[in-house]
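Notes from the 1:1 (GR / supervisor)

We went over the backlog. Supervisor wanted to see one worked example end to end before approving the batch request, so GR pasted a single chain during the call. The sequence is below; no edits were made to it. Supervisor asked that the structure be written out right there so they could see what the output format looks like.
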Amino acid sequence: MTIEDILNDARSVVKKVVPDHVEITQVDFEGPTIVIYTKNMEVFAESNDLVRQIAQQLRRRIVVRPDPSLLASQERFRPERDQEEDRVGPEGREDPAHPVEDRRGDPPVPSDDQ
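Structure output shown during the call:
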């Protein structure tokens, strides 16, 4: 059985098991797992039985994900200016007026030459 045969079989099982009002946008492979993309995540969240039925009929692991069109763009959550840019002065050196905290979140220890 080829990958296309398995995918076609998966698509037909999904079409049989999932109610008609649920919009399935894509059925695809990710490694050994079959991924179902949908615009109606709430239907799958309310009923684990749908995923279980599909998995049992296909004898494969199933993952249900929201359609990428429903996800917010990364640009929406990216700040206007990166905070790190605010701390870096000319030529990429740290601006002494805005010291960078170390990785533990502790403020920098002042040096003797300041």
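Supervisor's comment: The first strand starts at residue 24 and ends at 30.
Batch request approved.
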